[in-house]
Each structure stands twice: as structure tokens, then as C-alpha cells.
Amino acid sequence: MTQPILSRRTTLRSLGAVAAASVLTPRRARAQAPVQMISHRYPALELFAEKMRGAVEGVEVNTQLMPFDKANELATIALSSKADTLDIVYASDSTVQKYAKNGWLMPLDDLFEKYKEEFNLGDFPESGLAPYRYEGKLYVLPHTVNVMMLFYRKDLLDAEGKQPPKTIAEYQEIAEYFNSPMRAGSVNCLKPVDAGLNEAHWFINALGDGWFDDQWKPVFNNEKGVAAIETLKEITGYAQRGFATAANDECSLAYQQDIGVMGLQWATRAASMDDPAKSRVVGMIDWAAAPGGHARLSGDGYAISAFTKQDPDLLFRIIATSSSDATQREAASLMVPSRESVLRDPEFAKKFRHYPGILAALETAQPFPPLPEFYEAGEFITRRVLQAVAGEMDVKAALDAAAGETEQLLKSRGYYN
Fold first, then answer.
1. Which of 61, 204, 208, 218 could lock onto 403 through a cystine, CB 3.0 to 4.6 A?
2. Taking the C-alpha atoms of 252, 372, 109 and 331 in order, what is their torsion angle to the nearest 10 degrees?
3. What is the pLDDT of residues 57-89, one digit of tens each?
């Protein structure tokens, strides 16, 4: 059973110092102390955590699951201090760049080759492994691919003879049309940092020129970028209450509780829309690619801390077991599988009605920039975007400030001559 979320200080203390694991055999292993894992939390990751806890007989795995920003914060604190209090670390395609650059993770290449046949690791396509490489070395075994797609109330649009929007301009028109005191026309998630970056990423790429040029100079504050955030600002006029502090959990709840018509959300949240224990809109929501394309493509998985005192073979076995073919098939309703054979299995497209939307979204989505400092820059980018959306700053002034702060950060890290 996953332990309850604790305060940062208590959580770090509870992770404890770990002793070295004893020699691992394929069928049984014993560890002198529990394996410590920290992770983001959503339904698929909860299942992976369960599989980790039962992966190796005789080995206790203590799984700590929490919202993304908190998991990233606590992992950063522990790893930056070179503490041995974490063994298995959740990482996304973006955070792995920071973790690996700082030397916080153990390269997995040798372990990947050692266990390739046993765990059928060749089923992970290179395109799925590439985001988790840094300077040619692999640091994460992927558990999911994830993509943001349009969640929309098909019943409401059908009743008014409207098609799901194909462009952001159409999205804005439909949001305005359906907006009412009872139900927001648009569901927006702008809580810093991760959720706010996700939302801005869509607008900056679909309507602008992206985040950076090929020299890592910000371009999100150019004319197109300003127009993109101006459009976001206008659309939030039709958003649900509390959108500025809403992240994935809050926005998923907005759909489930029938207080929003449409918006972007992760594919991993789709199945919960049809869960009668959680949702008031079972069978009413459908999915499509993001209007205008360019919504965020991501993925996540698990890495091994460079500072662990546990046996790396033990830890890799736990990670690989939790991402097995059988587990990914069990979790297929909850996430986008990272194994090629599972993702492309036609039976899943027939069985899960959100799969066609996933496949359509994958064709147009794009990841965050592969910049190790992107989340650091996101701290002030998202706050400046919120200032612009709230009318506290002119949009141009806010983005110029964010661009200047980003350049200052990257210059201090040696990106510019």
C-alpha cells in the first residue's frame, strides 16, 4: 500500500539512509534496508508502484507518490546533496536532462544490455529511448509515452451541431459559445511550474515560433509569441474558477464534475472520465488531437540514483519488472504504452475508445526543449505568463522580462559566448 504523502522534511527523513543490498539471484534477493522510490502520482504510476513492491521476493520497496512538482522538488533536494536516501527516482523526458547533466543518475546502458533478453527490452523503440539519453548514455527505462490531447464534451457539441475545433481560433469561438455560469467554456491549467508550462507550450508552438532559436536564445517573446499569450489570456476569460492554481488533478476533476466543456489534458487521464466512481460525465467526453497541433509530448519512467548504496542489479530488476509487457498491457487503459508491441496492438484501439484520439495526438505533438535548465527557467516563465494573463503586466513586458531572466540563467550556465 502506498504510504501517505508527508511534509518535505518528514518525507526526506523517512526515506532514511539505506544499507547495501545483498547479492541478487533471479528468483530471490534480500536487501538490508527497504528500497526507496519517489515518484509523481497518477493512476498508471500507482500501478507501476504496486508492481515494484512485489517485483523481487524478499525485497521491500517503499514507494512515495505525490504531485509532479513536489516529487521533482524532493528528488532535487536529495540528489543535489548526494544523499543516499533515494534509490529509484521518477524522471520525465525533461527532468532527466537536468538530473543526468548534474551527475545525479546512474547510466543504465550496461544493465539494459545485460537484461535485454530476459525482459524483452528490445521492444522499446529507439524513438522512445532517445529522450532519456544524455550525451549518448541511457538513464531512464521508459514506462509510458504521454501526450496532451483535446478533451471535449461530445454530447454538448453534437447537440449544437458543432464539430471539435481544429484550430485555436475555432477553440476560442466554441469556448465563448458554451461558456456559462454553470459550465466553463474552457478548462485551463496554469499552476506553476509544470502545468503552466504545458499550457503555454501549446500556444507558443501552435501560434508562435517555439521557445528558443538554435543558439538557445529565447524567441517566445517575439511578435508571434506575444500574440500567442494574448490569445491564451483571452481564452482564460472562459475558464473555470481557480485556473491559475489548477494542475492536472484539478483540471481532470473539472471535466469529471461537469464544470468545463473542453481543454487539453494528458492521455493518462482519459480512462478516468468513464469511471462511474469518479465521473459524472461517463460516455459524454471524446478526444481529439490538440487544435492547431503542437501540444506537449512527454513520457516518464524510472532511473537509479547515482548515490544509492543498493545493488544496481536489484534496482534495475525492480524497474524492468514494473515495465514488463504484462504490466503495460494491464495498465493500457491508464496510459500510453512505451512498448511498441503494446502501443500498436489493434485490440487496444478497439477496446479503449480514447486510443484513436491518442494516436491522432501523437502525430502532431512535440516535447519540451531538451534543455536541462528548462524547468528552472519555467519557474519565472510561468509566473510572468500568469502576470500577463491576470493583467498585472502587459503581455509583451511580461514575456520580455521572462526572456531576459532566461538569458541571464543560461548565460550563467555557459550557454553563450
1. 218
2. 0
3. 999 999 999 999 999 999 999 999 999 999 999
